[in-house]
Design brief:
The protein is mainly alpha-helical and 302 residues long. The protein folds into two domains: 207 residues, Hypothetical protein af1432, CATH 1.10.3210.10; 63 residues, Molybdopterin biosynthesis moea protein, domain 2 (Alpha-Beta Complex). It is built from eleven helices and five strands. The strands form two sheets. Strands 1-5-2 form a three-stranded antiparallel sheet. It is flat.
Length: 302
């Protein structure tokens, strides 16, 4: 008798199982191929979207440049002021106190904030530049409409609301009594509060130091104290002694020594010059700031 083992037949259920496995493998291969095709399509679509975004940004930047050229051609003095405002705002926008969207809004609004003055009588603009105190009430009221006109014109360039809202509000006052809407405090967009300080500095017609002194004097009334501090922090650091730096309220940390005393609005000394800050002192400053804004520059020794 042969010792060769006799081949055993496959179990009756094995053949259907192998067939199912083959079918699943085939379906998996098709799914992988389909996924690869879809991924390639998504990459292609993303590339097209990026191209479109780049084209839109290029068109937007070109439109902003064109508007500036119109402003400059209409009134060269106005054009020079606009460029100065935009240059300072670009520097301030490098701080951490703006989101990426706010940075774009802030800089664009700086270029377009006086767009609404195009079309006014040139003699009226000349009078506004050299002798604003001689303007009649009617002339002042007419000029106060320019932020609204600029907002409307800017809407043709940018469909979002941020730039237009910033432009419209850049003559509002932190304590109220501004124009065109009489907004106050944080109802004024942050970008507009910052733009207001820069516009005043450039367009007030005051000598530099007088303009800086006027900004400090109006901190808490005309201007947001934090916007004032940010303006000085980002633009006036070169004029400070090398061992002193400007900071924002949220940058106060224990161990810092004040290079300038902090006073309340009533003239009460809160923290004297030279005192090292503790956590309790910082809480005191911040609590006071919540109740009645600390309007002064915050200077510390490095």
């Amino acid at each position: 008798m042969s010792d060769t083992p006799t081949a055993q037949p496959d179990p009756p259920e094995r053949a259907p199982l192998e067939s199912q496995v083959e079918q699943l493998q085939a379906r998996l291969a098709r799914a992988e191929a389909d996924l690869k095709t879809r991924a390639e399509a998504v990459d292609l679509a993303a590339a097209e979207v990026r191209k479109l975004q780049d084209a839109l940004k290029a068109n937007f930047d070109q439109s902003v440049r064109l508007c500036y050229q119109l402003i400059n051609a209409f009134d060269p003095l106005l054009g020079g002021q606009t460029r100065a405002v935009a240059d300072i705002c670009t520097k301030i926008a490098k701080s951490k106190y703006f989101t990426e969207r706010e940075k774009q809004t802030f800089i664009a609004a700086a270029w377009l904030h006086d767009l609404g003055l195009i079309g006014y009588d040139r003699a009226l603009l000349h009078q506004m530049h050299i002798a604003p105190g001689t303007l009649s009430t009617a002339e002042q009221e007419a000029l106060r409409l320019h932020p609204v006109r600029a907002q409307e014109l800017a809407s043709y360039i940018d469909g979002t609301r941020g730039i237009g809202e910033t432009i419209r509000a850049h003559h509002e006052r932190f304590g109220g009594q501004g124009y065109p809407d009489g907004f106050a405090g944080e109802t004024i967009p942050w970008t507009a509060r910052c733009l207001a300080v820069v516009v005043f500095f450039v367009e007030s017609g005051l000598p530099k130091q007088q303009a800086l002194d006027a900004i400090l004097k109006q901190s808490g009334t005309g201007f947001d104290p934090e916007a004032v501090r940010l303006f000085f922090k980002m633009t006036q650091s070169d004029s400070l002694p090398h061992q002193v730096r400007e900071i924002m309220a949220d940058e106060l940390t224990p161990g810092m020594r004040l290079a300038k005393g902090i006073y309340s609005n009533a003239g009460l000394l809160l923290v004297p010059e030279g005192q090292a800050l503790t956590a309790a002192t910082i809480d005191k400053i911040k609590n006071h700031n919540m109740l009645s804004s600390v309007t002064e520059r915050l200077l510390v020794f490095t």
